[in-house]
Amino acid sequence: EAGVAQSPRYKIIEKRQSVAFWCNPISGHATLYWYQQILGQGPKLLIQFQNNGVVDDSQLPKDRFSAERLKGVDSTLKIQPAKLEDSAVYLCASSLGAQGGGYTFGSGTRLTVV
Amino acid sequence: AQSVTQLGSHVSVSEGALVLLRCNYSSSVPPYLFWYVQYPNQGLQLLLKYTSAATLVKGINGFEAEFKKSETSFHLTKPSAHMSDAAEYFCAVSPSGGYQKVTFGTGTKLQVIP
Fold it and tell me: Per-residue pLDDT for A102 more than 80?
């Protein structure tokens, strides 16, 4: 089966610019997650979708980050305006359901804010 | 609330030696536990998971982990290290019921010395 697709792989922007990341989960996976992984740290959940509804966005900095999952399939994560501390790898993951399964991760988007 | 603590941010072993990566968890409800591996510039890949069945869990690439409730531990082991095992390993925990919110540890980088 095809994996979780993410684009772009790399992005370099200046602070205060905006950026968007795209994720296409595994077909049939209802649950989609965006994680932020800062260098030297473990992934931190930003937002979790169940189909096209938000289940958890408690750690999403809503003043600058937004995410949507229209039609319950692919998703976009946007940062506007970006700050230096947003430099990280943004990982998208999907899973079949809510319990017991591990995630399937995409390869991530490495964002560098200069 | 749930968390995991990975002891040792860097571990070095000789090729052919035992691999032991330590993980202790904290969870207010019965947990599900996971180990993921991350190779450079790639996303995370599920190695194995504990979901309240057998306490000794076997995963891919010869890895296994044992759930010890009395010690709140879920250490990852492999009898004989291979050069290809060099990567970063993440322990993770989620509640056993409801929507998954998986919390990751800070990771352990495994170096395999020839």
Answer: no
- Residue showing tokens 């990566």: B21
DSSP for B45-104 reads EEEEEE-SS-SEEE-GGG-EEEEEGGGTEEEEEESS--GGG-EEEEEEEEESSSS---EE
Interfacial A residues in 68-97 facing B (CB < 8 Å): 91, 93, 95
* Statement: residue B1 has pLDDT above 80: no
Nearest residue, CB atoms, A98 vs list B51, B92, B98 = B98
Q: How far is CA B99 from CA A48, B10, B44, B55, B108, in A?
A: 9, 32, 20, 23, 27
Both tokens of residue B112? 């395999």
Using pLDDT thresholds of 50, 70 and 90, give the confidence band for residue B105: very high
pLDDT of B57 higher than 80: yes
Q: Looking at CA atoms only, how far is residue B93 from chain A in angstroms? A: 10
* Interface test with chain A among B37, B48, B102, by most A beta carbons within 10 Å: B102
